[in-house]
Write a structure and sequence with these properties.
five-stranded antiparallel β-sheet, three-stranded antiparallel β-sheet, alpha+beta, globular, 129 residues, Dna Ligase, domain 1, 3 helices, 25% helix
Length: 129
C-alpha cells in the first residue's frame, strides 16, 4: 500500500474489529496529528510514542464503551491519485453530527467542525463514525 494515511486509518478500524485494546503503527507527524484529532473526539483513548533504534512507533490505546467500539467505520476521501479540497462552507456533516471529518488546513490537521468555526477549508482526508 502506497498511502500511509489510508493504511493508518484502516489499521485503527481493523484493530477495533479484532477487539484489540492496544496496537502500534509506524510514526509520522501527519499520523500523529490525525491521532490527536481522534483522541480529542474520543475515538481513541491514548497515544504514546516509542523508539526502537532509528525507528519510531506510535502506540495507540483504543476506546470502547460497554465493549462497543467508539470507531465503527471510516471512509477515506482524499487519495494520492485524487485529492479532494473543500471550502469551509462546504465541509460535510457525518451522520448528522455523530461522526467527524478530518481536514488538512493551512493551520494543520483538524476536525471539520473546528475548521468550519475557524472558517478554514482544505483537503478533506476522511469521514469517521
Amino acid at each position: 500500500m502506497n498511502d500511509p494515511i489510508s493504511d493508518f486509518l484502516i489499521r485503527i478500524k481493523n484493530a477495533y474489529m479484532a477487539g484489540k485494546v492496544q496496537f502500534e503503527v509506524p510514526h509520522s507527524k501527519m499520523k500523529e496529528a490525525i491521532a490527536d484529532v481522534l483522541k480529542r473526539h474520543g475515538f481513541i483513548s491514548k497515544i504514546a510514542t516509542k523508539k526502537e533504534g532509528v525507528k519510531k512507533f506510535m502506540v495507540i490505546d483504543l476506546a470502547y464503551q460497554n465493549k462497543i467500539p467508539k470507531f465503527t467505520n471510516v471512509v477515506i476521501i482524499s487519495k494520492p491519485g485524487k485529492r479532494v479540497y473543500v471550502p469551509h462552507n462546504k465541509l460535510p456533516k457525518v451522520l448528522g453530527g455523530l461522526g467527524i471529518t478530518i481536514v488538512s488546513t493551512p493551520e494543520g490537521i483538524m476536525s471539520g467542525s473546528f475548521a468550519k468555526k475557524k472558517k478554514l477549508g482544505g483537503e478533506l482526508i476522511c469521514k469517521i463514525w
